[in-house]
Design goal:
The chain is mainly alpha-helical and 87 residues long. The protein folds into two domains: 10-48; 50-87, no CATH class. It is 72% helix and 0% strand. It is built from four helices and no strands. α1 (14-27) crosses α2 (31-47). The termini are far apart.
């Protein structure tokens, strides 16, 4: 997957700069990446999940349903409990 990358300059006051550095340490990433993550998180909070992301989640869910179709969860739990009792 190829992403377009744009360079921009932002001015941060000392408190915001410190917060960005703290996030970078917490996420173990660059300050730029921490700022990108913070912007995306704020967008999700303010605007909700994008239509594209909703579609991706739906496709993943539908794939899981397909993978587990016909799976006997109760039988699997009973089998695992029986194994635990014998070990």
């Amino acid at each position: 997957m190829h992403f377009m990358v744009y360079r921009t300059t932002i001015l941060l006051d000392e408190g915001t700069r410190k917060a960005a550095r703290e996030l970078a340490v917490r996420y173990d990433c660059s300050v730029s990446e921490a700022i990108r993550r913070a912007i995306l998180a704020q967008r999700r909070q303010a605007l909700g999940v994008s239509e594209e992301r909703r579609r991706e989640r739906l496709e993943a869910f539908e794939r899981l349903v397909e993978l587990f179709e016909g799976h006997d969860a109760e039988g699997e739990i009973a089998r695992l409990k029986a194994e635990d009792e014998h070990t």
